[in-house]
Please model this.
Amino acid sequence: MDLNQLKIDLGDGVFMRPVREQDKDAVFHLVRRNYDHLRTFMEWAKPDYSRSDAEEWVERSVELQRQGEVLNFCIFRDDRLVGTIGFAEFDHRAKVTEIGYWIDKDEQGKGIIGSACKEAVHMAFRDLGMNRVQIRCASANTRSSAIPEKLGFVKEGVQRQHVIRDGKIYDFLIYGLLKTEWNDREHNDA
Model:
């Protein structure tokens, strides 16, 4: 898979493509504009999020993508960055990966993350050789937990009082989907 040429159309002028070096400024501005929206559930969202934080994330993403350890995507509406989605890590031996995502507060509720996540799951099983995809999120993050539920993931458990976000302790929900489950669902939907 040529990451430099990869661009996935999500419809209505929205697409996703792997993170590139030139995304640093757009990431910085989007995170800063969305700090209040992100701070409750994203541990990396901090009041002093800086250009160097954005640069570090982009540079690390690009390098780890080259090494096959992560695969992060920027989501755009036309030429404007509106969010990110990615495979946080790969366990190639066990064939397991985890998907994480977030979107601009003004783009919520439009189905963008659901579409992006569906494409990511499809890619994980079809192109990346994964056998299991998981999504974890804070129990209070109902928008985030709606995504795996809609895509047919199984709620496998709860990590009680597992994370502190914005000064509060939250349970963490664990959702999993196996390749056989995805294939069965894809064939039944056809």
